[in-house]
Design a protein that fits this description.
The chain is α+β, with helices and mostly antiparallel strands. The chain is built from four helices and six strands; from the N terminus they run H-E-E-H-E-E-E-H-E-H.
Length: 184
């Protein structure tokens, strides 16, 4: 006698999903790096060549599956897993932190003692003043608690709009204003 089984749902493998999310997220990550003049300088988003450059993949972040009961925690975990795959020099150690996190969700400690840190903020639209305060406080705490921080990546699940409309401040304009404060 044959047993009838439920239809199998065809879904991408976990690795395929991770690769798709990496592609979507990495094109939205903004990095800061150490400046010779005053500490922190801002670099624009970078997408590794191996992921094929920028492309029109869209992710509905509202549907992000909660982790430990929270979409915020899920986004933080995703960002940390992506950070763990960053290429660091041999002998570097990856550290995942738990809240309170002193401005970084995770970081790579390099053999030189320098650190690369990541902070995730699950904001689904351009940050409001309270959210900007959260970002500013994270940057300040990260620089205070991690004096060897040379690279700081702020992960947001949104693109920075820049319509360049007269009389209107865009997300990009706001970002540039805050980044200027973070530099020195």
């Amino acid at each position: 006698m044959k047993t009838r089984t439920a239809p199998v749902e065809c879904r991408p493998t976990d690795w395929e999903l991770l690769e798709l999310l990496c592609k979507a997220l990495l094109r939205q990550i903004v990095r800061t790096g150490k400046s010779q003049s005053c500490g922190m300088a801002v670099r624009e988003p970078v997408l590794p060549r191996k992921l094929g450059g920028i492309f029109p993949l869209r992710v509905n972040w509202h549907n992000l599956r909660p982790w430990n009961g929270s979409q915020n925690a899920a986004f933080e975990e995703l960002c940390c897993q992506l950070a763990a795959y960053e290429r660091a020099s041999s002998g570097s150690v990856f550290v995942r932190k738990a809240p309170p996190d002193a401005g970084v969700e995770c970081f790579w400690k390099l053999q030189t003692g320098d650190e690369w840190g990541w902070q995730a903020k699950f904001f689904l639209s351009s940050p409001n003043p309270g959210q900007w305060r959260q970002i500013d406080e994270s940057v300040t705490r990260a620089l205070e608690k991690h004096p060897r921080l040379t690279t700081y990546t702020i992960c947001l699940p949104i693109d920075r709009s820049d319509p360049q409309t007269s009389g209107r401040t865009s997300f990009m304009d706001q970002w540039q204003g805050h980044a200027q404060k973070w530099r020195c």
